[in-house]
TrEMBL record:
Residue ranges of the TM segments: none
Lineage: Eukaryota, Fungi, Dikarya, Ascomycota, Pezizomycotina
GO molecular function: oxidoreductase activity
A Pfam family of this chain: NAD_binding_10
Name of the protein this chain belongs to: NAD(P)-binding domain-containing protein
Stored SUPFAM superfamilies: NAD(P)-binding Rossmann-fold domains
Source taxon at top rank: Eukaryota
Amino acid sequence: MSEIRNVVILGATGLVGKEIVKALVDDGSFQVTIVKRIGGSSSHPFPESSRLREIGDIDYTSVSSLKKAFAGQHAVIEALNPSGVVHQDKIVQAAVETESVRHIITPDFSGDYLNEHIHEIRIYDSKVEAHHVTKRLIQQRKSLHWTAILTGSFFDWAIDNGIFWVDAKARQVTIFGSGNQSNALAALDVVGRATIRVLKDPDSYLDRQAYFADYLISCNELLKLLNELEDQTWTAKHVSLDDFYEQGKKLWDEDTAKGVEDRRSTTAYIMLGTYGCFHEENRYSTDYSGRVESGFGWTRDQFARELLKAVKSARKE
């Protein structure tokens, strides 16, 4: 495949999109176009750069409108939030009909939603549907390929926002179940690092999921590590997973009945996602052992430094 230099990003002003834009611009190898859709409410003041431009008033429900944004682009990066993937059929069709586009990085940047049991926890349903749409439509052009970037949980962002298993201010780690379940963790900027790696070597990632995590660790190991890193004692808060799944499903069904659309901050979403992470038999593939891309990831010392940095940031030290 020829070099990828011109890249268009959908969802550039979101949590993931902002990180990807920054990484690509800082790398200096790409010309980056960010898309502002009609009706979009979010904004972000990106620094001026000769390598960055914005195109506005793009209608995600229109193939012809999307083709205007894709013209001359080599790759389309979908940094969309879950609500945006309802437009996947139009986005992929527009890429198919734009000859310059050779690669799509699909709207993922999350856990392993391609796991065979993932439908049980519901939170990835929209991503699964978008994946099926992509695979079906992309077959129209043999020169067009896709990559799904699957990451670990964004531990630094989550700690800073008080929604992680590590409570920096209370110096407490929540232990779910046995606490021995290994999870893939990554710093938020992994989305940029992984995207650059795929774009610079697309042939190695054609039409497959690619796993990018910085470190694999259990809650028990997290607690031990934090007690090594700080003089003050860290304690454990134990949470049983008994009935956790059933409670999460019940709340999910109640939200459905109420017509809740944005579920990401709901108790049901958090409970089902947590259950997925800590199933004792790794039923939902949150342990990426043996699957992280070659040469990617941190040593224990590197992870320890970044973990401590995140903890201090959350405490504003």
